[in-house]
Amino acid sequence: MALWSGRFEKSVGSFTQAFGASLPVDKSMYSQDIKGSIAHAKMLAAQGIISRTDLEKIEVGLLEIENQIEQGKFRFDINDEDIHMAIEKTLIEDIGVAGARLHTGRSRNDQVATDTRLHAKDLLHELLTQNCALRGVLYAKARDNFDVIMPGYTHLQHAQPVLFSHHMLAYFWMFTRDFKRLTYALKAADANPLGSAALAGTTYPLDRQMTTELLDFDHPIPNSMDAVSDRDYLLDLEYACSVSMMHLSRLCEEIILWSSTEFGFITLSDSFATGSSIMPQKKNPDFAELTRGKMGRVVGDLVALLVTMKSLPLAYNKDLQECKEGAMDAAKTLHDCMVCMEGMIKTMELHVPEMRAAAGKGFTAATDVADYLAKKGMPFRQAHEVVGNLVLYCEKHHKGLEDLTLDEFREASELFEEDIVSSLDLEKIVRARKTYGGTGHDAVKVQMEEAKQVLNADKASIGYVAQPLL
């Protein structure tokens, strides 16, 4: 019999009972539900609404239920609808009338809102921790391969030579922005709805500040109707996950390209590749491809929640039951993809000679040749035209800029002198980018130091504890 059955003459049918149940999804929130119930009971006792004896029985009973769940001894019944009813029904069966007093001054509406916020906070702490771990590996890969030169691309065509460390740090900063978005989502979730009851508050003298402190929320939500119906923080969580998955998909695409025969820049560890059932030679970047593909799943979670929330009237509606699963899925997917990426980056082998050789192909020095003329006094737009003609000449004669003689250069412009040959050196081209944020060695050293400081500050802000690589 349902705990709300007093008003009904007939029970819900077995199909509709299962259709309306959220227990398969929200049973993972058992610890948050028990934590919220203990805080509520302590507040009720402090306010003289229940006795200290009842509080002791409730707390002991809830902790025993938690222990049973963790040991796999708790029997979940789909007829209980959700984790909240499952725990409360068992508590009443175990300790009697004291358990029936737990729900005083509380509705499932503020209860589920509390549990969902607590669960979101826990998920976000895990994501923030793994974000730091991933950025740590990106930083280390950049540091350990600081001087490696590779081609930089625009439109997937050779553009200018860059340091591999500069390329890795570009992703470091993307994931740093993701950290900020996840932190914002954490702050959005960090508000206490408990005490709002169904939608209008309650006549009991509840101390919402007390439960706020017990549950480690930042503040109580000031409007009871908003408190029970708000799921914006889940949208924030799923948006942050979606953007981070987009960044992962970009990195995955490059890993897939770099590991191909056409590029040959890296070899993935056997731990992060698979073979073919028919082609013996194949080593496929399956896990990078899977991570790239999972972005659509997470974006789907975000869109699904947006559509679910669209046009919902105040206050609570059963539609909100659909909010939890997508948030859980988005968080777990991002977490697992970051763990996978951490391992891929940490273990991939760079093919340094191939990367450097590729950096010199595709006329990547062309901009520097134009700059050479501009520094000699030629307007840059005119220099751009001259070098464009040189590139066209090279293509027609199957040459690179480095293959041209001084006479061939001077046919394009009398401003070219013997020093043009040394100006085509990849090392010099890269080192010349000294401006803040550039790919020059000195600029990247500054960037590395800044990245280290930012990462250390972010780790400190969440009490980071290193996680073993799975």
From TrEMBL:
What this protein catalyses is:
2-(N(omega)-L-arginino)succinate = fumarate + L-arginine
Q: Does the keyword 4Fe-4S apply?
A: no
Example GO biological process: L-arginine biosynthetic process via ornithine
Q: Where in the cell is it found?
A: Cytoplasm
In what residue span(s) does the Fumarate lyase N-terminal domain sit?
A: 6-300
Species per Swiss-Prot/TrEMBL record: Slackia equolifaciens
Pathway assigned to this chain's UniProt record:
Amino-acid biosynthesis; L-arginine biosynthesis; L-arginine from L-ornithine and carbamoyl phosphate: step 3/3
- CDD domains recorded for this chain? Argininosuccinate_lyase
Boundaries of every Argininosuccinate lyase C-terminal domain copy: 363-430
Alphabetically list the UniProt keywords: Amino-acid biosynthesis, Arginine biosynthesis, Cytoplasm, Lyase
| InterPro entries named in the record | Arg_succ_lyase_C (IPR029419), Argininosuccinate_lyase (IPR009049), Fumarase/histidase_N (IPR024083), Fumarate_lyase_CS (IPR020557), Fumarate_lyase_fam (IPR000362), Fumarate_lyase_N (IPR022761), L-Aspartase-like (IPR008948)
Concerning SUPFAM superfamilies, the annotation shows: L-aspartase-like
Q: What is this protein called?
A: Argininosuccinate lyase
- Superkingdom of this entry's organism? Bacteria
Q: Recall the GO molecular function terms of this protein's record.
A: argininosuccinate lyase activity
Q: Does the keyword Transferase apply?
A: no
Phylogenetic lineage: Bacteria, Bacillati, Actinomycetota, Coriobacteriia, Eggerthellales
GO cellular component term, pick one = cytosol
Q: Which Pfam families match?
A: ASL_C2, Lyase_1
Q: Which family does it belong to?
A: Belongs to the lyase 1 family. Argininosuccinate lyase subfamily.
- PROSITE patterns tied to this protein: FUMARATE_LYASES
Q: What is its EC number?
A: 4.3.2.1
